[in-house]
Amino acid sequence: MKRIIAYALLLGLFSCSDSSLKNEDKKEQVAVSNETLVTEVEGMVCSMGCGGSIRKELKSTGAVSRVEVDFDEEKEKQIVKITYDNRLISKKEIVDRIEKLNKGQFSVSIIGSSYIESSKDEDNSSDKPKVSVTETSFEVPSLLDILSSIVVQ
Fold this sequence. Notes:
- This protein is α+β, with helices and mostly antiparallel strands.
- The protein folds into 2 domains: 1-26 and 140-153, no CATH class; 31-135, Alpha-Beta Plaits (2-Layer Sandwich).
- It has 4 helices and 6 strands.
- Helix 1 runs antiparallel to helix 4.
- It is elongated, with a radius of gyration of 23 Å.
């Protein structure tokens, strides 16, 4: 019995638990897409894997609302169109993030960019496309709590 308690205490000391991450601590950031960047990306071997990793990386910034990959396996360079909020991320940051992926697998060239026009209605509110990013977290339960509940029973 003493060994079980000592073992449980040891596991509790080394278990992973981050009490600072709670589900109530969701942060919401609203990005207003106001620019589109068109790039050529060299080094992509597939649409799903490479395109997915680029999409995931850029969307994780909270400043990118859309990533469109025009993949053609016959071409060396693929067209990637990125819609983003230029107040939250720059073109250079976007290019740097893509080029750092997969140990530098991709090489990026900017083809062009354009601003997204927005119209204003009577009360001067903007009709700009918006993206809402919600950050959620997951807390790993403490092994000490689990083992102590088992030992007590």
